[in-house]
């Protein structure tokens, strides 16, 4: 145990930790801060966010046909409110615009009216008008949910699967597509950051000792070559700690995006742009992706460890890690984390890739251990 | 002799050659990702073969006559007699024809081809009107609004667009815009080559250059031979040999990777007959504002200067990693220290307030320099709009890094070897 603890301390050397932290901060600023700072991004997304949260309060995670009628009625009431507002403004009454219908069609071409229109939408930014826009697009996508679903799944020839989904109620789920996409972007970029960090930190596990000729000493002691196994455990624990810390930070920051209301909604909402093979709630999807990130971190650690032992120069270590990192990043942003189990890729491909990566990770460590047991120490 | 030995040290591990092969393969994959455009692109190559690339009255007359022939053919194959089609696209977008499916496959192919020719013909006709209506003042205003410039920064943008306006007049006088080229708004070949492939090349070369420079410079420390080599007669002067060896190795790597990538590109996409087309041709335009280069450059000249700038910026990165190596003495650390510098350089301009001209000054750094390679020498980027942006960035940093490298050599001669 004590040796494992020493090895972990060696891996988490303060110089490397500060290096990794600096890289993480820069990475955060370049690729992550936007999705935290600007969510929901602009109007009417912010208004849709507000309206859908109200809907969940009222209707629960799904909106059935009856509740949809109620939603329409609320829409009419809002339209009346907008009309009241228009009538309360002299400039609009003068221009002959007193109802929401007239307001919507007023801005075509006429400059004077255009200015009035912009006054409400942009200069003053009156909430009710933006919310009406959101409600309209919600109604539209709710009414088109089945068509949209068939359009999105046009390339899949499994009508039984499609019929099951259409008959079920998950298409009624309330989850704006940009909430899902925001999470998807963030977890993808975090996964990449975690993989890179693990590779940087764990990549040093053998090569530093080798560079110091410490391995010669270590392998002739009582514990001897079993140290390899201890180092494997230490590396895996380090990978686990790094991943947990980053995921923890991520979840804390992500809570600031206020997704709590949507956690129980199914991903197959009427507003979904990405369809998934599995019927998951948003929360289940979050669990699933986090598990995927842990898995990838362990695989990355295994590969980094193997390389760290197999090469004997820093240049070779980085040189070997670069292509692996490039491939992993491409896979992560294609289907290993981004849109995990989405229908853009067949399900067996995702499972197959994960299984393959796991087998690869385990296999290289086992073969290396076998070799380690009887190899010459130069 | 010593330099040769220094170079040989690089070949002790297969890392660098393997990385080059990996990157070359990656680039070939990127190059191939647009092969579905080849058929459409060949339509333009054929047009240029027939009419030449210059658009003038004679050419347009001939082009127009031939085009009318094509429209006649379109009407001939059109199923209904009651309707005349003025353009191939009208038949292509006619839903009843598509539904009845009366055209044979070869006719459909030909029709699609004529649809592409129509695009070129139409665009060629509209060029003069379009350039008459370009209003750079309003472009400046919309850019100011988009990026949120205020105060003197906003004035600077306006000033620069005034200068660009002068160049635009000159460009129109030269007739640089009136030349046939692959239609940028459809195929985005300029972005494809100079942005995506260019960026891939720049970052791949950056990785290679940093690794090679650091590995050559740190070799003695990483192999515990420093105490022997640096105390010999030649001693610490070796650092200069190492610098030269690194330059040679980097040069070879650059030629290899750029050579393979560009060969793959030009063997895949046929640019014959287009080498001398000005880069500011209207057909090259991808955004509402067409590309306006600060100088009258042909496509091949632009490629040459692009490669040159790419290589010089890599030399800057070599200088930076050499300095880092002298002080850190560890390839692993140098690599990631460089990554941190890269991130800082990219982020640096965003720390400046949008109201001061500082925001433009901060773009004069080698890391911001490589972010928009497709806009090099162009007046299109709001932050790098200056005509001399490239030359100033390069000269200032060659000078600064020259000083830095000399200082690190001076330091190296005196520093502790432990």
TrEMBL record, chain A:
Keywords: Membrane, Transmembrane, Transmembrane helix. The chain crosses the membrane at residues 12-34, 186-207, 232-255, 285-307, 314-337, 343-366. The keyword Membrane applies. It comes from the Bacteria. This is ABC-2 family transporter protein. The lineage of its organism: Bacteria, Bacillati, Bacillota, Bacilli, Bacillales.
From TrEMBL, chain B:
Coiled coil: none annotated. The keyword Ribosomal protein does not apply. The chain crosses the membrane at residues 16-37, 193-216, 243-267, 299-320, 332-352, 389-410. Keywords: Membrane, Transmembrane, Transmembrane helix. The keyword Transmembrane helix applies. This is ABC transporter permease. It comes from Lentibacillus halophilus.
